[in-house]
Design goal:
Distance between the termini: 25 Å
Structural class: alpha+beta
Order of helices and strands: HHEHEEEEEHEHEHEEEHEHEHHHHH
Number of domains: 2
Number of strands: 13
Largest sheet: 9 strands, mixed
Helix content: 55-70%
Strand content: 15-25%
Number of helices: 13
């Protein structure tokens, strides 16, 4: 018997028992769909994390430094970074206002305690290099200037989403908004940076850091952001800044110097581990589906014992019997795999929309791997019934009813 005949016989056998075959495939369908959806979910989380770090920009260095003896770290750090112009392009305080913030323009009011997170205003304070260090670009108007910082100017630059929420389609340049009752003139608007609103950078309201006493009831800060020229300069700058802060602060405070790339690498390693973990959980349902395949194939062998006896009596070899039942098991799993992949794609689209608000597609590798896994299930779990069928003695098999 050639392979073409074996496939025809397998197809007829599956078609003759449509209900049983469909129920047998169901285990494979559910298992493969679960694998695809869970692995794609983990990949979606990884994409979201990468988008967040990309919104932060490259070659960014985050610095936390505080002294317990009221030492002026800001000026010392700024001056040192200016000396490192071979490696560092700029440095800025990075102060975020976390207390209640009420922003008003005309009849429009945004309150970060009352508004949803997606529309919550985020007041940040920095110097004239804040945009450079955070990879922001001014789309309208101008950026903060050195004189704005020195003269305590009540000016601000809005993120694109914040400008849209406050002014709709009107030009905000030259208009005055109030932050907790204090008036600020809008001098610029940043280009859209984060359309998916993961980091909230488009909801920024940037004001001079010298306004911290007025808005934040504080004159001290400990968070800074520096911008290096390239990746090689980033590594060198981190080493130099770490040594400088160690000498400046010593045991009289705390500090750390890191780049978001370090967090990204750690996050990607965790995501890979999560993908394996979720894939392993889903593989359990595949194993259950495979046991169902073995069970049905054993039933099929029992039902077709007389047919096997006749074929062996007229000279069929063991390998042809094994091939026939393996092909049938693989066809059941293969058909189930196709439906499982389709269900996995639909489930992934739904999960991507609900969880990440994005169109999420399973990777080609996961799809191809899922199909081959389904066929492999047919081989693994169909092998024992096939061997059992090939081992039947013709005389015993012909006596079977």
């Amino acid at each position: 018997m050639n392979l073409n005949q074996a496939f025809k016989i397998a197809a007829k056998s599956i078609a003759a028992k449509k209900g049983r075959s469909a129920l047998t495939m169901l285990g494979v369908i559910i298992g493969l769909a679960a694998v695809i959806i869970l692995v794609s979910y983990a990949q979606g989380q990884n994409q979201q994390m990468r988008a967040y770090y990309e919104s932060l920009g490259t070659n960014v260095i985050n610095i936390e430094a505080s002294s317990w003896n009221s030492q002026n770290i800001s000026d010392a750090l700024y001056n040192y970074c200016m000396e490192l112009d071979e490696y560092v392009l700029g440095v800025t305080p990075n102060i975020q206002m976390y207390n209640q913030t009420v922003v008003k323009y005309g009849a429009k009011t945004l309150d970060n305690y009352q508004t949803s997170w997606e529309e919550s205003p985020q007041v940040v304070m920095g110097n004239q290099q804040f945009a450079l260090c955070n990879n922001l670009t001014v789309a309208k108007g101008r950026d903060l200037s050195y004189l704005d910082i020195q003269k305590y100017s009540q000016v601000c630059v809005l993120g694109s989403k914040m400008a849209s929420m406050l002014f709709n389609y009107a030009d905000p340049i030259g208009k005055t908004i109030t932050i907790n009752g204090t008036p600020f003139e809008v001098v610029g608007v940043f280009e859209e940076k984060d359309p998916n609103n993961y980091s909230g950078v488009d909801r920024y309201i940037l004001v001079p850091y010298t306004m911290t006493r007025l808005l934040n009831s504080s004159t001290s800060w400990s968070s800074f952001v520096a911008k290096a020229k390239d990746s090689a300069s980033t590594t060198r700058a981190i080493t130099l800044l770490d040594g400088f802060l160690k000498g400046l602060i010593g045991e009289n405070g705390y500090y750390y110097v890191q780049t978001p790339n370090q967090w990204q690498e750690q996050g990607e390693a965790q995501d890979k581990l999560q993908q394996r973990f979720l894939g392993g959980i889903a593989a359990i349902s595949l194993a259950v589906g495979g046991i169902g395949i073995m069970n049905i194939m054993l039933v099929t062998v029992t039902e077709r014992t007389r047919e096997i006896g006749i074929r062996k009596a007229i000279g069929a070899e063991r390998r042809s019997i094994i091939a026939q039942f393996l092909i049938e098991a693989c066809m059941i799993c293969g058909i189930g795999g196709i439906f499982g992949i389709a269900a996995g794609y639909i489930g992934t689209l739904i999960v991507g929309k609900l969880s990440f608000n994005m169109i999420l597609w399973p990777s080609v590798g996961v799809t191809v791997g899922a199909f081959f896994i389904s066929v492999a299930l047919g081989v693994i779990f169909g092998l024992y019934p096939a061997i059992k069928a090939s081992g039947l003695q013709p005389v015993v098999a012909l006596r079977a009813e």
